[in-house]
Amino acid sequence: MTQRKLIRPRLSEVKEKQQKITKGKKPAPPEQTYAEIYYYQKQMHHRTPMILVLLDGERLKGWIEWWDTACIKFNRHDGPNLLVPKHSIKYMFKDPEAPERPTMRPESAREESGPRE
How many Cα atoms are found within 13 Å in the side-chain-facing hemisphere of 111? Predict the structure, then answer.
């Protein structure tokens, strides 16, 4: 009986072949980047004053209370709250005329006011 010798490529040869094949190709981008989720969560948390521009040109001013894959619940000061389907929104942006939310006072302002009693 004769012994048979298995013929198999070395691991380094296989890796070199794979690198040559995939060298010129870019990897596919991820299917979900979570940028939309991050943006909506940030705007909801800070109650950022927003303007929604609908497909028909109507502008809505308010803030985002919650959202899901199909709709945005939009609260307004001057009218009823709305449930707006995302497919009817042309674009949205932060309201440039809205006052800035107050942040913590700078150290110099604290020192000028003096200690509290």
Answer: 3
Considering the entire predicted model, what is its pTM?
Answer: 0.59
CA distances from 8 to 13, 15, 17 (A): 10, 14, 14
- Residue numbers of the domain that contains 72: 41-97
| 8 in any annotated domain | no
Q: What is the DSSP string of 29-84?
A: PPS---HHHHHHHHHHHHT--EEEEETTS-EEEEEEEEE-SSEEEEE-SSS--EEE
Within-domain flag for 3: no
The β-bridge partners of 51 are: 61, 93
Name the β-bridge partners of 71: 85
The total number of structural domains in the chain stands at 1
Report residue 77's pLDDT band, with 50, 70 and 90 as the boundaries.
Answer: confident
Asked whether the predicted pLDDT for residue 87 surpasses 60, the reply is yes
